[in-house]
């Protein structure tokens, strides 16, 4: 697909990053090992109280996991970002909370451990923004399945090395991405190793 | 089960109510027709930023719907309320957003329509509290099923008339209940009629 590359950066393993995206701009997130979960949030740039809402996405689309074509709506139920390319295994998770300090305590970790929730707040602070809570994240590249008995199974990551997902901003947004720091469970693969991912910023109109 | 009744009130159809519950106190919610969905939130009384979190509940218990025995944990992953009695059909929903103004616009409603989201904020204001967002609600008496293809089916309410759910506060909490005002879809039954429910406040220790 044609596009103009406007910038390129590394999302370091276990770290977060907030990006200002103008309407129509996109970010391509490339997963070199195919194993790295990326917790994703989007906020309206001019009103952080409107944000990508997993509970509204499930209600709007009547699905519990995300593939290209599912409308990623905000708390106002308007599309805020759109998946315009996806070479991953898809079925991105909407059900599990971003990892947070309480989870790592539960898992027996002593002292500080990075978390997606902490990464999100840290990344917003770095661009002078703030929110007083942690919305549910869209967990890209993360595989969870609801069984017929309505229990939930965490699966190993199923995407090929080098697969990518491209998200387009439907209006001016603050996008926050976190390379999940989970190294106790196998949600980032059997070797429990968070990995760097690549971010390419693509010009408005590339995916019109 | 033995208990001391400390108070009784009506939760009017399509309205919300915020209750201060001391640690160990409980509220029994009786559904006279068995059809009324009750959207439920709980906040730590001394710190509203800690609240009952559907995404943490799903993660903590590895389930997507709620029956007695599932730990209803907060954003800090400690139990905040507990279901101590349940004579309903169970399988209470965690997946769908509280109804909100945008949903009613989507459904073609012109002008103001009450919503669970609006009820929650209104009820908090009535007791001098406020939060700047709408957490996902625990949707008591509401039936949603995840299919093998990971789509989501809204079912008719399945509880018998007069069935009840009793929630105990694990520490001092603000509990918010909303009788769902949905009268366009059949989530509150085929006659699309929100109904009054009864609330009984039960003394601390009744369900120790």
From TrEMBL, chains A, B:
Superkingdom, taxonomy of origin: Bacteria
InterPro entries: DUF1989
Classification via Pfam families: DUF1989
UniProt domain DUF1989: residue ranges: 11-174
PANTHER family with a match to the protein in the record: RE64534P
Protein name: DUF1989 domain-containing protein
